[in-house]
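Page 47, continued from p. 46.
Same chain as before, 209 aa.
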Amino acid sequence: LKGIETPALFTQQTALYTAAYNALPNPNSPNLSAAKKLIAQAHAKGETVSIGVENSLTSDTVSAVLQQIGQSIGLNVKIVKLTPAGFGNVSYISTCPRPYDALLNWWNPDFPAPSAELVPPLASNFSDVSCYFSKTFNALRVRWAATADGSATQANATIAMMKLLTHDDVYMPLYSDPLVMVEPSNLTGYTQTQVFVYQDFPDQVQFSS
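Result:
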């Protein structure tokens, strides 16, 4: 992904958001050759990085890919599997830096809104797992909070936050799957054909007829 915000979240002021997203400098897919060169330039080849993950089937799959990619660019990736309670403790201990070099953290907004990926996760040192404490970002967030919902001013304020986080490499977005809450009374003539669950809990969900 080019950034933490994805076009699927652009439900208002679509033209503004889409133009800003397309203008982000990140490629649409990882440039592993460039990453390998950067690792070599930093004399970090062979270094070990630790990534804390919440133990689940989804995390197992993603962890294997992270280890493979790390090896291809010259890094040893150590995956630390944590229980849900253990992962929660590491995520919200409010101590920086965290015990691991990175955390594989799932964040799914319950409604399509670009600000849902920016404001809540970085709202305090307890939820800010990236330990990203930026006065510049905080000022942008205050400016965003003073805007009218759905306005072009709000969109531009959100875009400013998105650009800063992309520039500062706060996140390495792997995938974003926005969830939409729909009340059955709002729909007629519709038969439910799919059920979506949070990405890190598929092995804990059971269905019965």
